[in-house]
Design goal:
The chain is of the alpha+beta class and about 950 residues long. Helix content is about 40%, strand content about 15%. The protein has 30 helices and 27 strands. Strands 3, 4, 5, 6, 7, 10, 11, 12, 15 and 16 form a ten-stranded mixed sheet that branches. A three-stranded antiparallel sheet has the order 2-1-22, covered by helices on one side. The protein has a three-stranded antiparallel sheet with strand order 13-14-25. Strand 6, helix 8 and strand 7 form a beta-alpha-beta unit. The protein is globular. The chain starts with a helix and ends in an 11-residue tail after the last strand. About 55% of the residues are buried.
Amino acid sequence: MTETAGARAAARKGNKKGVKVERIFTTPGVHPYDEVTWEHRDVVQQNWKTGETIFEQRDVEFPDFWSVNASTIVTTKYFRGAVGTDKREKSLKQLIDRVVLTYVKAGKDHGYFSSDEDAELFEHELTWALLHQVFSFNSPVWFNVGTSSPQQVSACFILAVDDSMESILNWYKEEGFIFKGGSGAGLNLSRIRSSKELLSSGGTASGPVSFMRGADASAGTIKSGGATRRAAKMVVLDVDHPDIEEFVETKAREEDKIRALRDAGFDMDLGGKDIVSVQYQNANNSVRVNDEFMRAVEEGTEFGLRARDDGRVIDTVDARELFAKIAKAAWECADPGIQYDDTINDWHTNPETGRITASNPCSEYMSLDNSSCNLASLNLLKFLREDDTFDAVTFQKVAELVITAMDISICFADFPTEPIGETTRNYRQLGIGYANLGALLMATGHGYDSEGGRALAASITSLLTGAAYKRSAEIAAVVGPYAGYARNADAHKRVMRKHQAANDQIRTLDTMDGDIHRLATKAWDEVVKLGEKNGYRNAQASVLAPTGTIGFMMDCDTTGIEPDFSLVKFKKLVGGGSMQIVNLTIPRALKKLGYQQEQIEAIVEYIADKGHVIDAPGLKTEHYEVFDTAMGARAISPMGHVRMMAATQPFLSGAISKTVNLPETATVEEIEDVYLQGWKMGLKALAVYRDNCKVGQPLSDGGSTAKAAAADKAAAGETKVEKVIEYRPVRKRLPKRRPSQTISFSVGGAEGYLTAGSYPDDGLGELFLKFGKQGSTLAGVMDAFSIAVSIGLQYGVPLETFVEKFTNLRFEPAGLTDDPDVRMAQSIMDYVFRRLALDYMDFETRSFMGIHTAEERARQLETGSYAAPVEEESDEEVEGELETFAQSAPVAKPKAIESAGSGAKADATGVKFGAGAASAREVKGVGSSAELLEKFQGVAADAPICMTCGTKMRPAGSCYVCEGCGSTSGCS
């Protein structure tokens, strides 16, 4: 009997034992919704450069203290239901209730609460915390929970692949469906035989790198097939694999190809039309190193590369030379990152089940193969009181509340594959973390790269994980430990003692971190004591995730463990305007440091003008470090980032999503040192990025790298063009007599006819659409549309391109059809192009788009041989709504705006702008904080352009996040 079944049995027997639910924020007898002021807003999403309206939903309801950006991102990304219909969510109340009530019901069903009163208190506390942006679940929860879609709650996945063709092809399939759902996955390819080994048939193996090509192409196809972001994936290879050097250099050599193609005039921007010809661009690569290799690097000795079948050494390399190649490749293109295998597995709570071999794409989730993790992050700034003290007691209570909810979610969650579902249900991995650390450190007068800053961060992280495992042991007493606990009990308890010992090593420097540390020490004492008695409900409790989109939902200034991006931010205002605003934490920090109001105003005015604090009037030089940022004139040193990661790593079950940024002038030797020190300091994983190391980063004006290269040559006097070759498509006309078929159809009661003509060699070349009872205007429009699509087909536009663009379009008539293969259609266009895909596209291509026949779906349900999606329409409802918002940036317009005084405006957060606000200035021609920083620095920021709305993104963990629409480059 599993632990979930045991919980149900206990509940049926009348067991009244439940987890402790404590009142934290709420008022008895008052619902959280009744304690805030609500206002109605119009959310209009526009293209930043053209002003074209892409998304519009009027009369949405949010609390008055939610910012414009937060309400816009939640409305466009998380509200479910077709826009313009009564089924569309239009209030934050509906969204929170959809999620929270699902959690509460599952908690009741699975025996978590001793009474209905406890369940109601749990509901109200969870609602209050979400309403007031105290924490947030990861995006899949907001997408899926409480909807007709599969209840997927996890954002992070780890897959497994063995040394067989069946396993490799299954890897492609499983990865594809995870990408289709908007999530990411990682895996280790080290079980696959190298290209230096023989097959059982006598031939030579292809090696893992060759199979990476197929997986990369698959990810690229899905990326362009209606996804809201690029496919996110991690590929890991052990350092002792015989193909390690080929793996290390794959992306660096492709970067050479990108440069050559760019210089030849091809568009090699990220998202450019020619970048698709380059391989390995859809994955992050990491080398898994062990202590043996790192010691060989230190000692300058040989290191053996081992066969996959029997572990014998079949080749040797100079360890230092290989390490230098890893660093050089990372210097050239930011890949590969590095993962420290022995450190990871030394902190592994389930070694009897299996080793940890890989991570999710952002490297924070590290656990068993075929497993998943759902995430939630606490907003640290919400626990900073008005008197600048940190409310550690409330922080611990909230962590216990949230970890309880996260564990409950596994009881009802759905998973993309059964092996992932089985492992997750048996080990119940969770990933509680936090956001806004950088803002908290600055507001409290701590430098990010300082002993005080690290002591505070370490104490907070220790308390977070201690509180999570304490609650995990308490839950185990009620509904039982995780199913895999018994066989791993000794190892799990050993890791808990390691966390406790690391907590004892923290050296606090002031009252704030001292108070937090005392609570953490008490929590770890209880963890060890309760765990010895009850076991633990969760194999893993905490990670530090990027918190990209949910960071905006919580109105955070900084993401995850990151420092502040810059001192001056781009901020959207009501009515569609924008402002350059000095971070609100800066005045608070200056006051904490003892400056008077007149001095604060002068310093803030200086920062607004210069973008940095160097030579700010009256600011002491010893206080400069408090205002150091990730980018800008006083950027934090690379080792400053590494030291902060090292301060928090011993208190995390998993790892940290973070990239260590280096200046363009950094050397290969400096990257070697970062990777070496990361190992010595006990990190689990590390990635680096050297500014301008990648060609495929668009400039802020969105121009192509080909144009940029041409401009550079022109500036250097290289203006001579010897030959210009222009490529034009050629129209392939249909013959006079061609095969065709006519299909009659009905969508939502509206009847029509589709005639499709083909080339003799079987390729679609034309289509004609006629609707029953159509007027002359509609008939003319449909004739014109049919001609346009037909000409496009004849000029070589692939049918899959039209299918990608026209499926999921939503408008009336919509609903049931008379076609057994397409039972539901969101519009006539949705039906027509699904039908064409079924008739004229191969199975593999349309399968990645989730388009299957009724026979294929039935076969999948009976045998599992075809991976047809369950509740296909529900899955695509999420994708369709997200794609609707492509090529846009948000502008929100509240209907009710409270006056901010004479000559001033106020946004939804109540921040005043105007003649008396020294920290704010009007901004023109800027769409994000990254572009604003460019204006201060005078150089282009090395960050990608958001594929959704066209604004420049900024770093968030080991990926990027868009301030305009909340999209991320691969992390949830």
